[in-house]
């Protein structure tokens, strides 16, 4: 093979440098091992062997720096409000009708909402993520300073989860942020909110649709889901009166106004059978034209799953589309 031309050689060296493992990666690994031995009684040699199987991935850092939620609503919506996801939601509902009904009876979360979460997260299991979870959490925990503390904590949660559930962590695949299974639970959520809904002695968010359904419903209930209460509804805003009113855009805010206060500020909507003291927030989304929405407590609960108003609105609108399609199909 002839030698590389100087310019091409420089490109190759630059590419190699761009993906080289930073010093922080292995330094962080050693400190993490020491902490896990001291705090949780792990064996240092076992952790060294496990983490030796992980690799730093620059692609994970790059993905964290360009999340889907940075897109405008008009583009973000198109990713999830598709005929395929709507049909998939109807099929998921039909295939798991009894389990979804049991989850609604036990947790108060409607089938279409659970289906929409699984649809948005993994297209009903078709895309579970291709990143080794160990790579994701070590890369972000040791070499992503902006959120390193969070991801080191998630790496610890993963190892505790693996010990509790007899899971081999090196075999797990998930998102670039280390989320796992059909509902894409991060390790701390898996430990705290996953349930054994099929009563087989395991909490399996990959192979058990029942556990997936029950765990999503439990997550919502634990975060304050209110059965029978709407999620959100469209509104109109008198532009001349918007100054001084707190308006949420991409970042969620907890409902701390009331419907009465919004009306007094010039927000209007189609008649609703809701008490004027109902907590609410005003949302503005950058669609083809600005869209205004009133978000209620259940909308905020959806943002606890993913801290983005775009995400919550995509889940809500997909759930409504699934519900309508399911009813039409009979």
From TrEMBL:
The molecular function terms of the Gene Ontology recorded here are: peptidoglycan lytic transglycosylase activity
Q: Please list which residues make up the signal peptide.
A: 1-20
Q: Which Gene3D superfamilies match?
A: 1.10.530.10, Bacterial muramidase (1.10.8.350)
Q: Which GO terms describe its biological process?
A: peptidoglycan catabolic process
Source superkingdom:
Bacteria
Q: Which UniProt keywords apply?
A: Signal
Q: Where is the Transglycosylase SLT domain?
A: 29-320
Active-site residue numbers: 121
Quote the NCBIfam families the UniProt record gives: MltB
Q: What is this protein called?
A: Lytic murein transglycosylase B
Q: Which organism is it from?
A: Thiorhodococcus minor
Please name the taxonomic classification of the source: Bacteria, Pseudomonadati, Pseudomonadota, Gammaproteobacteria, Chromatiales
